[in-house]
Amino acid sequence: MQFEVWAPQAGRVTLHCEGATRAMGRDPARAGWWTGEAEAGDGARYGYAVDDGPVRPDPRSRRQPDGPDGLSAVVDHGRRPWRTEWSGRPLQGAVLYELHVGTFTPGGTLDAAAERLGHLVELGVTHLELMPLCPFPGRHGWGYEGVSLWAVHEPYGGPAALRRFVDRAHELGLGVVLDVVHNHLGPSGNHLPEFGPYFTDTHHTPWGAAVNLDAPGSDEVRAFLLGSALAWLRDYRIDGLRLDAVHALADTRACHFLEELSTAVDALAAETGRPLFLVAESDLNDPRIITARADGGLGVTAQWNDDFHHALHTALTGEAQGYYADFARAPLEALAKTLTGGYFHDGTYSSFRDRHHGRPLDRARVAAHRLLGYSQTHDQVGNRAQGDRLSATLSPGLLACAATVTLTGPFTPMLFMGEEWAAGTPWQFFTDHTDPELAEAVRRGRRREFAAHGWAEEDVPDPQDPATRDRSCLDWSEPGQEPHARVLDWYRRLVALRHEQPDLTDPDLADMKVAHDEEARWLAFRRGDVCVAVNLGKEVAGIPLGTRPARVLAAFEPVDTPDEEGVLRLPGESCVVLEQP
């Protein structure tokens, strides 16, 4: 087979394959590329040496059987045919479920996770969003310090396990979304700089030198990232990609990398006949990211909406530290603004940033499903000192209110694994760095970060302690116990309602009607004929809904329909969904 590698500054490149060594030649048609041939089938080990340096894995490696520092292995996807016919599943109308393979089950593998997919079918979600799968040193970690951007972490099961997982998900009717990280690579096992200018000092990020998207040599770097993204969608039949922290993609070109990526993904969707989509994580509050390219935007399908999370979180918890401060001044007002306008910061002053932030979203051009709404995510749970979920401090009634606003609101809802049954397990920050110095630096940095917020050092879990990961694994005995079973039943009912009631997937954000009472702590909104009310206070709230006849579709606590004056008497820490034509 033919091997090829981009090494534009090399004077000599050697292919090491199955114990044999061969000099590679320059490709006359492509500047900076080297090619060579060797007998190699599926599983064959190989690597490259640049200018007689150490043998390194292929930057485009499809498998790293021995981890990021070991040799690459050939993967022949044609040897593993798909069992399931799959025409795809679009984002519009979806309910997403964020899942970390390493803690979804104690086994921590893709095969073990596949055995639990029936639970998600019963829950009613439509897509799984897998946290990053690229290889990283050690066995356990969040995945955001991955390297080898075309490969699958071997302890999860490697490429073959991912294909089995996707096949099983599709067999059950579940779409699969993969979280990918283009803005940086991990600090350990990253050998790309030995091959070429994959990084640049022109820009700097929290992780050091930026990925080279606009400096000399960036054409091939962009092609590397684009090729990786398309490979997930094509070779593994992934349905969509979640793009980590796109605000950290430093790119000054006239055609931004995200625009180039969205163009390529749309072309692949047309070629395969499957709907494919991109979901960006961005804190820019810039609607151009999710505006169609024809209208001057970047063409990304959707984005995470942290403003919705922050407003809902402060309304539920009363927390006001850090970036919650702006939302905590009047949390229900902030929540009402995000429900009707998409962003809270739409050109307003942000005290956390000490500047104005964001710009208004044009509700006439941007459909509501292009924003993802959630009450919990891996970030918002795991980046707390002790990884405590909402269920650690909130009553089942308030958890039900959070679910109700998320699952009946205008945005594409996303759940974080275990929240549907009010999981009692935390989800903490854990690592398994094999470099002792790096491990100690991460441990100290984590403790120093939270010491500044008043946490005692001994109260911050040690990321390197295997027990930290073990504590973060879901306890699958909980869904059958109370109060978990009751919360799970409520989630199932809400997801079913979202699928049953067309008004709950109406893409018209401008049609949202919201009312609230900050002091009494209730909020209500109407979407077509569906009316939703939540009472975050402890006392019964009188909520004026109008005198139109009403029918209760779902209620967490027993409740009557509005009285003859149109007032709903909603018990404290409870919620209801009504039909009111």
UniProtKB/TrEMBL annotation:
SUPFAM superfamilies: (Trans)glycosidases, E set domains. One of its GO terms (molecular function) is 4-alpha-D-(1->4)-alpha-D-glucanotrehalose trehalohydrolase activity. The keyword Phosphoprotein does not apply. The active site is at residues 244, 281. It holds the Pfam family DUF3459. Transmembrane segments: none annotated. Its EC number is 3.2.1.141. The keyword Cytoplasm applies. Belongs to the glycosyl hydrolase 13 family. This is Malto-oligosyltrehalose trehalohydrolase. It comes from Streptomyces cadmiisoli. The gene is treZ.
